[in-house]
Amino acid sequence: MTDGLVSVITSIYNSGEFIAQAIESVQAQTYQNWEMVITDDCSTDNGPEIVAEYAARDPRIRLLSLPENGGPGVSRNNSIKNANGQYIAFLDSDDMWEPDKLESQIALMKKTGCGVVYSSYHICDEDGNRTGAVICKNRVRYWRIVCDNAIGFLTMMFDRKVTGDALLPTIRKRQDWGLNITLLKRCRTAYGVKRPLAYYRIRKGSVSRDKFGLIKYNVAIYRQVMGYSKIGSVLMFCCVFAPFYLGKKFLNVIKSF
Questions:
Q1: In terms of Cα–Cα distance, which of 184, 190, 189, 174 is closest to 222?
Q2: pLDDT tens digits for range 94-108
Q3: Per-residue DSSP letters for 72-114?
Q4: SS3 state of residue 196
Q5: How far apart are alpha carbons 234 and 216 in whole angstroms?
Q6: What does the pLDDT read at residue 186?
Q7: Alpha-carbon span 257 to 255, nearest angstrom
Q8: Residue 5 belongs to what H/E stretch?
Q9: What element of type H or E holds 116?
């Protein structure tokens, strides 16, 4: 582990259209002590070739490959296992960061002594046009992350010296929430930067927008990460997650009037 180094964890799968923008947003960081560890999850487009071109010009960028498609949890874990940094940050292949993202969050970590930080983020369409923003809480405690994921994964960063090493659960979806639960169980509280420091791209047909399709993965997180039984996991979803999620949506509707 190298002190002060940020390991940017990225998974690519048929992301040739956007990966250059993601890489360039990392290269533009005001905090320059970083490495970008990119794992290709068996892409069939030109994404790996684009990454290889950037890696040939910038030794801080590394391209790794999986022998078979394993999903984002497996590919992200592959990058984490090959990371050298004290800090672990996540950037999906179709998202982007503001230039001072890393600098601002490391400053917050040093100020608070916390092990996990995050921020607000912009929402944009496939062409990169802003369509909204998600404004984060000043802090998120463990009990809150158990109810519902309140941390945008493209903004999350953790300090391995504080939290210890951690990997994502390898289910196909909701692995980001699973890792957030694991980390906050260890350090109890995460802190956020109110200013949006990233851009989350909404793509047509995105699996993350299929909320009903995510239900079984939400239940799986309670079972695999928190260790509940099958019945206990279903009860947690029905009695904790679902009411909390619906209540949050209701409040958003009320605020819009």
A1: 174
A2: 999 999 999 999 999
A3: HHHHHHHHHHT--EEEEEE--TT-EE-TTHHHHHHHHHHHH--
A4: coil
A5: 9
A6: 95
A7: 6
A8: strand 2-12
A9: strand 116-119
Q: Is 3 exposed, middle or buried (0-12, 13-18, 19+ CB in 10 A)?
A: exposed
What is the length of the chain?
Answer: 257
Whole-angstrom Cα distance, residue 140 to residue 134? 15
Residue 227 in tokens: 């260790």
Q: Is-contact 154 80, C-beta < 8 A?
A: no
Pairing mode, strands 85-90 and 189-193: unpaired
Among 77, 84, 3, 2, which residue's Cα sits nearest to residue 39? 77
DSSP string, 12-62: ESS-TTTHHHHHHHHHT-S---EEEEEEE-S-SSSHHHHHHHHHHH-TTEE
109-135 burial code (b ≥16 CB/10 A, e <16): beeeebbbbbbbbbbbeeeeeeeeeee
pLDDT tens, position by position, 41-67: 999 999 999 999 999 999 999 999 999
156: three-class secondary structure by DSSP: coil
CA-to-CA dists, residue 179 to 49, 64, 89, 119, 156, angstroms: 30, 22, 12, 17, 10
Amino acid at 89: A
pLDDT beneath 70: ranges in the chain:
205-213, 249-257
Q: How many CB atoms lie within 10 A of CB 78?
A: 22
Main-chain dihedrals φ then ψ at residue 2, nearest 5 degrees: -105, 120
At 139, list the tokens: 């802090």
